[in-house]
C-alpha cells in the first residue's frame, strides 16, 4: 500500500521493492495506489514497481471503475478470457461510461493539482494544529513529511469513536472510525495496534478525510462542533 488509508502514512514502495527483489529478482511487486493517486507524486518510470492500482471514486469519479499500471503486460496471464477486451487481459463488456468519467476526473484534477495540493495542505495544518491543542486529543498520523495531508487520524480520550461519529453525523459532519474495508469488524484498527496504540486511545480513534470540495470555513466549523460534542459526551462517560 503506497499510502495507508487509515493514517495517511506514506510507504517507500520503491525501496521496499528493491529489498524484495534483492531476495528474489523474479518477484512481481504490486502496490495499492488508491490513496496516493493524484494526492502525491508517483514515480513509476524508475521501473521499481511492476503493478500499481488506482480507483476512480477517490478522485470524485464513479465507483466500480479503476486502472492498473502494468510494467510488462507480456508477463500477465488473464483470469477471464473470451472476447479479448482490455488488451486481452480481461475479457467482458467494458464500463465505457465509467472509464470516460474516470478520464474526465483525472483531467479536471490535473488542471488545478498544484493549487489544490497547497490548499489541502493549508487546511490540514490548521486542523492538526488545532486538534493537537485540544484537551486529551492526540494525533495518530505520522509527521507531515511522512504522510499525505488529506488523511488525519486522531484519538479522543474519554469518548468512544462510534459515539462521536454518530454525534458528528447528527450535526452534518461525516468522519469514520477507520477504513471502509473493516468498518463491520469492530475490533479496533490493526494499523493503530501495530503502532502501539491501545486502550482508551484505540477506542477513541477517528479518521478525518479532506477532499477537493472541503473549505477552510468547513474546517473551522468542524473544529468548533467537535469540541462541543467532545465536552458533551465526556460529561456522560460511564465512571
Tell me about this structure.
The protein has 8 helices and 6 strands; from the N terminus they run αβββαααββαααβα. With 239 residues, it is of the alpha+beta class. The strands form 2 sheets. Strands 1-2-3 form a 3-stranded mixed beta sheet, with no helix packed on it. α5 packs across α8.
Main attributes of the structure:
239 residues; alpha+beta; three-stranded antiparallel beta sheet; globular
Number of β-strand runs = 6
Radius of gyration: 20 Å
State the helix count. Answer: 8
Beta-strand percentage? 5-15%
Distance between the amino and carboxyl termini: 40 Å
Could you estimate the helical fraction of the residues in percent? Answer: 25-40%
| SSE run | HEEEHHHEEHHHEH
The best one-word shape is globular
Strand order of the largest sheet: 1-2-3
Category by helix and strand content: alpha+beta
- Compute the average pLDDT: 92
Largest β sheet strand count, sense and barrel closure: 3 strands, mixed
Q: Residue ranges: pLDDT <50 for 5 or more in a row? A: none
How does the SSE layout of this entry go?
Layout: H1 13-23, E1 30-32, E2 51-55, E3 66-70, H2 85-88, H3 96-111, H4 113-132, E4 137-139, E5 151-156, H5 161-169, H6 190-194, H7 199-203, E6 205-209, H8 216-235
Parallel strand pairs: 1-2
Antiparallel strand pairs: 2-3, 4-5, 5-6
Amino acid at each position: 500500500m503506497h499510502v495507508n488509508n487509515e493514517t495517511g502514512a506514506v510507504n517507500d514502495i520503491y525501496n521496499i521493492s528493491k529489498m524484495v527483489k534483492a531476495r528474489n529478482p523474479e518477484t512481481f511487486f504490486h502496490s495499492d495506489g488508491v490513496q496516493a493517486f493524484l494526492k502525491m507524486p508517483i514515480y513509476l518510470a524508475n521501473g521499481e514497481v511492476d503493478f500499481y492500482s488506482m480507483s476512480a471514486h477517490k478522485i470524485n469519479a464513479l465507483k466500480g471503475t479503476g486502472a492498473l499500471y502494468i510494467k510488462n503486460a507480456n508477463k500477465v496471464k488473464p483470469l477471464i478470457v473470451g472476447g479479448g477486451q482490455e488488451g486481452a487481459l480481461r475479457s467482458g463488456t467494458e464500463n465505457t461510461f465509467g472509464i470516460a468519467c474516470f478520464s474526465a476526473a483525472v483531467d479536471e484534477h490535473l488542471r488545478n493539482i498544484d493549487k489544490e495540493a497547497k490548499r489541502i495542505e493549508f487546511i490540514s495544518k490548521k486542523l492538526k494544529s488545532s486538534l493537537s491543542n485540544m484537551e486529551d486529543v492526540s494525533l495518530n498520523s505520522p509527521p507531515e513529511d511522512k504522510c499525505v495531508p488529506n488523511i488525519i487520524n486522531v484519538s479522543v480520550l474519554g469518548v468512544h469513536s462510534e459515539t462521536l461519529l454518530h454525534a458528528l453525523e447528527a450535526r452534518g459532519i461525516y468522519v469514520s472510525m477507520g477504513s471502509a474495508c473493516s468498518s463491520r469488524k469492530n475490533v479496533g484498527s490493526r494499523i493503530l495496534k501495530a503502532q502501539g496504540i491501545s486502550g482508551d486511545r484505540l477506542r477513541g480513534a477517528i479518521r478525518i478525510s479532506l477532499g477537493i470540495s472541503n473549505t477552510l470555513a468547513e474546517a473551522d466549523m468542524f473544529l468548533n462542533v467537535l469540541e462541543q460534542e467532545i465536552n458533551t459526551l465526556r460529561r456522560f462517560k460511564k465512571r
